């Protein structure tokens, strides 16, 4: 009998460990490509806007060109905090005055709107009673409230804050009420099983579920407030970015007007980005819970 010797099994050497961070490289490359594509599209959009702006400036010579607006913007930003009297302040001081009014009115609207939204979202009777009033007052132009605020408060800056409060109130109320009224039935049943009281139900069920809707309402309210303050300050005068725009127009400095518009837009983007980040954080926390 012939013995057949079998070859020993082949054992491959262990694969070398990947270098540190190699597993994250595809994700990092993907994010870099997405960022590059976003920047490229943004540059394209800006180029188209500048081209249209230049064409309009050629057709209407009284309007400033992009180059003139850029020069005026650099001048405004070179000395943003100078103060030469009531009617001659730097753009930084004007922005500070406007932001102070916006944040004050926005904070008041949040303090009133969120609890009111919870009340309306948690009670059908309260919603039926308040909804007609909200639907009548919500479409009213913000500037229509300014004379009433001026008569009641006897102070133009405070009247501007009142207008911000009124106009920023409705998105917060409506979105909070929508979030509070959309609590799933399963969540409500679980709260009944655990015998939650009213305060425990609001704290542990209604508020966490409503947070994304609340942040959306706050984002809309801040955007409206920042738009409205410019128009209100044109009426109230004295200080603020809206007063600066109107004062520059009356002085025939349209390049400064255009530069101020760019500043207003930039600040609006930053404010909106802050609420977008807050909304993502809230959504992440809700997914974890």
What does this protein structure show overall?
This protein is 78% helix and 0% strand. The mean pLDDT is 87. With 289 residues, the protein is mainly alpha-helical. It has helices at 25-59, 66-78, 91-122, 124-137, 142-153, 156-181, 185-193, 198-236, 241-250, 254-288. The chain contains ten helices and no strands. It is flat. It has a domain at 88-288: MetI-like (MetI-like fold, Orthogonal Bundle), CATH 1.10.3720. The termini are far apart. The longest helix is centred in the last third of the chain and has 39 residues, at 198-236.
Question: What's the gyration radius in Å?
Answer: 28 Å
CATH class of the domain at 88-288: Mainly Alpha
Q: What global shape is seen?
A: flat
Secondary structure tally, helices: 10
Structural class: mainly alpha
Helical content stands at over 70%
CATH superfamily of the domain at 88-288: MetI-like
**Order of helix and strand elements from N to C terminus:** HHHHHHHHHH
List the helices and strands and how they pair.
Blueprint: H1 25-59, H2 66-78, H3 91-122, H4 124-137, H5 142-153, H6 156-181, H7 185-193, H8 198-236, H9 241-250, H10 254-288
Helix pairs in contact: 2-10, 3-4, 3-6, 3-8, 3-9, 5-6, 6-8, 8-9, 8-10, 9-10
List keywords for this structure.
mainly alpha; 78% helix; MetI-like fold; flat; 289 residues; single chain
What's the quick description here?
78% of the residues lie in helices and 0% in strands. The chain has 10 helices and no strands.
């Amino acid at each position: 009998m012939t013995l057949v010797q079998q070859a020993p099994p082949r054992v491959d050497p262990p694969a070398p460990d990947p270098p540190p961070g190699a597993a994250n490289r595809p994700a990092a490359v993907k994010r870099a490509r997405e960022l590059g594509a976003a920047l490229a599209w943004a540059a394209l959009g800006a180029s188209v806007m500048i081209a249209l702006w230049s064409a309009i400036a050629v057709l209407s010579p009284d309007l400033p060109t992009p180059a003139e607006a850029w020069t005026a913007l650099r001048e405004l930003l070179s000395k943003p905090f100078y103060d030469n009297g009531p009617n001659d302040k730097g753009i930084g001081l004007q922005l500070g005055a406007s932001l102070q009014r916006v944040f004050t009115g926005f904070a008041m609207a949040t303090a009133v709107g969120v609890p009111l939204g919870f009340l309306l979202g948690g009670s059908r009777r309260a919603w039926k009673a308040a909804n007609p009033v909200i639907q009548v007052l919500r479409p009213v132009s913000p500037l229509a409230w300014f004379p009433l605020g001026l008569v009641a408060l006897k102070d133009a800056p405070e009247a501007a804050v009142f207008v911000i409060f009124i106009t920023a109130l409705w998105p917060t109320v409506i979105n909070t009420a929508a979030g509070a009224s959309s609590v799933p039935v399963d969540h409500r049943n679980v709260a009944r099983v655990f015998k939650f009281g009213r305060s425990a139900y609001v704290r542990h069920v209604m508020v966490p579920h409503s947070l994304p809707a609340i942040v959306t309402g706050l984002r809309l309210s801040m955007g409206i407030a920042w738009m409205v303050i410019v128009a209100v300050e044109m009426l109230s005068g004295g200080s603020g970015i809206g007063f600066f725009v109107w004062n520059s127009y009356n002085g025939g400095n349209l390049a400064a007007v255009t530069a101020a518009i760019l500043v207003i837009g930039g600040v609006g983007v930053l404010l909106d980005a802050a609420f977008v980040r807050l909304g993502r954080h809230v959504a992440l926390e809700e997914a974890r819970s």
